[in-house]
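Worked example

This section walks through a single chain of length 99. The input is the sequence exactly as stored; nothing has been trimmed or padded.
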Amino acid sequence: MTIYSEIKLRRPTEETCLNIEKIIDKYPEISASKALTRYINDVSRTEQIIIDLTNENRELKKLNQLQEFELYSVKLKLNDIRSTYGRLNSLLTGDKNET
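Given that input, the structure is written out below as tokens.
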């Protein structure tokens, strides 16, 4: 915990300690305070990415709902066309059983 006395953290969490140590291991030339700054920036970026992905997911769900509604509408129209074609065909052929 000597690293943390340099940056005067009060009771850092295990996760914070591990992440700062990973950063220091990856970049041995930086100080503990720079590692903490980098960690804070990484957490902020990660939180923003989560927010962005959540918003994108919400938008994609809305788009999916619209596309499902459009597909349903097209299926209804297709059924109407098939029904109309069947009636027209029976009229043209003189078949009274198909309606």
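What to look for: DSSP finds three helices and no strands in the chain.
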